């Protein structure tokens, strides 16, 4: 395993060369960062949970016809994915005002937006992922008009599906971030959904208590991060009652928290 060629290391994941050309292995770390990596930490067991949650959501999305890079989960922390040319945009879909939007426009957190809002930021850590408009995207050629059409269309489909999926388990999908990539077939490129969908890149609030079940627990020092991620996995039916927590590598976390 350790001799595999590493292609890229990000804040929460590592990409290794895959077994076949055009494939990669995506490894989910326990590392957590926030505020453009100014805050760093570890959430023991997070990688295992995100791998499983993301597998589940990407599989369901593929079932409704959203093309994704996911091929199969390989083990607790790794999944086999299709290699894509990443489009350098973060696509943020919002249903409820929170986080950056609430701060930027002085909105009260929790305000239901009159319509779903899609925002784009440039994927560039050095610049702090600045927000960009479709005019910037066209001007600098980060994606074509046709690709932007496909991206917005998929983002809305993903949002509609996930709003329903989470509502059914008592969770409000406040907002989330998607990334897309190109797959080349000769001269023709197709856009597919890439990266991951997990409590690391979604805001998920309990519908009755508004309890945060996502990375805001880490960003805002609320504690109970892994328990929140576990709760999402449990409600999605991914952690049957009585699951052996050793399986989720949670022991070290428990010891740290003195349980
Ligand atoms: O911080 P902000 O309110 O803009 O985040 C909107 C959504 O996008 C949140 O769900 C957050 O988790 C996600 N996001 C992300 N990665 C980023 C920025 C935002 O996953 N770099």
UniProtKB/TrEMBL annotation:
One GO process term, biological-process aspect: 'de novo' IMP biosynthetic process
Name of the top EC class for this enzyme: ligase
Keyword vocabulary terms for this entry: ATP-binding, Ligase, Nucleotide-binding, Purine biosynthesis
Pfam families: SAICAR_synt (PF01259)
Gene Ontology cellular component list: cytosol
Matching PROSITE patterns: SAICAR_SYNTHETASE_2
Biological pathway: Purine metabolism; IMP biosynthesis via de novo pathway; 5-amino-1-(5-phospho-D-ribosyl)imidazole-4-carboxamide from 5-amino-1-(5-phospho-D-ribosyl)imidazole-4-carboxylate: step 1/2
Database matches in InterPro entries: SAICAR_synt/ADE2_N, SAICAR_synt_PurC, SAICAR_synth, SAICAR_synthetase, SAICAR_synthetase_CS
Protein name: Phosphoribosylaminoimidazole-succinocarboxamide synthase
Organism field: Sphingobium nicotianae
